Amino acid sequence: MIGRAAPGSAAPMTTQPLPPTQDEARAELADLADRIARADTAYHGDDAPEISDAEYDALVRRNRAIEAAFPDLVRTDSPSLRVGSAPSGHLAKVAHARPMLSLNNAFADEDVAEFVASIRRFLRLSDDEAVALTAEPKIDGLSCSLRYEDRRLVRALTRGDGAVGEDVTANVATIADIPQTLPAAAPDVFEVRGEVYMAKQDFAGLNARLLAEAVDPARARQFANPRNAAAGSLRQKDAAVTASRPLKFLAHGWGEVGALPADSQAGVVQALKDWGLPIADAFQRCEGAAQALAVYRAIEAARADLPYDIDGVVYKLDRLDWQERLGFVGRAPRWAIAHKFPAERAQTTLKAIDIQVGRTGALTPVARLEPVTVGGVVVTNATLHNADEIERLGVRPQDRVVVQRAGDVIPQIVENLTRDETREPWAFPTTCPECGSLAERGEGEVVVRCTGGLVCPAQRVERLIHFVSRHAYDIAGLGLVRVEDFFRDGLIASPADIFRLHTHRDALVQRERMSELVVDKLLAAIDARRSIGLDRFLFALGIRHVGEVTARDLARRYGTIEAFLEMIERALVVRAETVPAIGENDRKFVLRRGRALVAAVETAGIGPEVADALLAFFAEEHNRAVVDDLLREVTPTPVEHKAVASELTGKTVVFTGKLETLSRDEAKAQADALGARVSGSVSKKTDLVVVGADAGSKRAKAEELGIRVIDEAAWADIVSAATT
């Protein structure tokens, strides 16, 4: 109905196990943020979706599940805090009078029941109070806002990033079922919001026409799906091109209005219909969740026969005064939800199990399948997650399996139909398939890792991708695809090689899609990053367990790269002196050695596991060689931390529960500015616990330990007192 659902959508957890450690969780959240950002840009900005809606929803759910399990790791660029993507391209950018936000998701009947129950709880309604809803198909098109002033259409905007959209007024004027004027009954100002789409039959006709008109049929442009065709057609430079495309529009809501023609959702939608705006035929008012679910079943059954693509049903609370009281949470309204259709399944044969090696050396098994169509997409691969998942499913090559397009980045196997057949079990490898190094599974971990580090080709390219990622060196124009291409062609093999790319300028200009202008812009962007903060430099190295927060703490503690490396030299001596003697590899020794390493690193917040990983990285000669080579090309700059003196300076603060007036990231930033350190868990070392709504075990533990506990309002008073 309004494009993809909000990244913060509530949903059941996936079947994939949660990361066992904070380091694993932090790395996966970074990967998910990048993947979802790329998908948002492709979908909202470029109108060229790279993944299906089911795969996108799976990424979002995975991100949500990890954030729920590790709330202190929620990133500043978390998909939970973002809608759509920044508008780009040739069209003028215009701010929306009211943000165009998105919807939370429901995936089961129980989620819909909980949606209604949450409305009752929030509004404190009695059990016998009727909660009427509206239900309508969720159209898979391009969201658009039509602004009428004095009842004349004066502007049309795409959603863009929710705050700023693209001006498509001239193009919208060519869509026949969008009225240019509203009748006298309409108010002076009224923004109609809805979906521009292309009907299935019209989509097929457009592709056929483009093929027939092409000089070279082999190079004819063909749209991948109706949504892609509608978005590309609406965002044309030339309105005449839009006029030649069979676009349609369905209204489903409103933005800024001078007045509303009714006091209910159904009443306003009826008014829109009376004013000449097209409304979905299946739109209905429902007396409660049971009737809404019946509408869902009817629409789902008729899905294949509808003239347009849909991926679910949208429910909205009918009473507008209740909508106003409920308001919004994050980037979505509390009074509406999108009930998505379930992922489709199919049977196929497992041909082989391959191993992929990630940036941190994690060995991930991937199933190679006999091609099978699932939900309109041909699937040839599926994730198997880890060795435990293979054992749980009992899968082996030649097994007959059930595949579902949901639950992870790529489709997953949900059932093994032939596990009872007599066949040797598949053995997880003990060496890395990329470099032959030993592959080990750490104590308490579910992941098997290659021990080759930077000598492993798979880890090298992934670490290069991490090196240029958003929160590391963030080099404009040097994304995942170019890094992979440059690595494959021998142009870069280490981070320092990136800063020597200027020696390959002539070769770069000869590459496809790399004109002199593009190459010079890329080289300028690289040169601009020769000086960068020490914290980003350390994070960019991709050291296990050293995420953004740890890199920041190290940079603040030592200030300069010289001081940091001096600490490393001293700490490596301590590490070498604490090797286990025969029979000494017991818990007491591990604790003693851990304390020694922590003391050597001497940085608040860094424990034995992180200290050991940091020193293990610099203990490897090839890693030191990479860092030394890089330092010949770049200069890390000191990181200054200016904190306001306050009652919290030097104290440890924990935030728990749902914060209503500010995001978790904003709260952490405030604590940081007051000289406090934020922790994700409550211990005897905790000085203050700030509780939001639904605070649970952390609050109880704080009270048990006698730690000071305050609410969000009291926290705001502390911040205000320190900063005024």
Task: Walk me through what this model shows.
- By secondary structure, this protein is of the alpha+beta class.
- The protein is 37% helix and 19% strand.
- The strands form 8 sheets. Strands 2-13-10-3-9 form a 5-stranded mixed sheet.
- A hairpin with a 2-residue loop joins strand 11 and strand 12 (332-333).
- Helix 19 runs antiparallel to helix 20 (587-601).
- The protein is globular.
Largest sheet: 5 strands, mixed
Helix/sheet category:
alpha+beta
Helix-residue proportion: 25-40%
Average predicted confidence as pLDDT:
84
Say what oligomer this is. Answer: single chain
State the separation between the terminal residues, measured CA to CA: 45 Å
In what range is the share of β-strand residues? 15-25%
What Rg, in angstroms, do the CA atoms define? 28 Å
SS element count, helices = 25
Task: Give descriptors for this structure.
single chain, disordered N terminus, globular, 724 residues, five-stranded antiparallel beta sheet, alpha+beta, 26 strands, five-stranded mixed beta sheet
Structure described in brief:
The chain is α+β, with helices and mostly antiparallel strands and 724 residues long. The chain contains 25 helices and 26 strands.
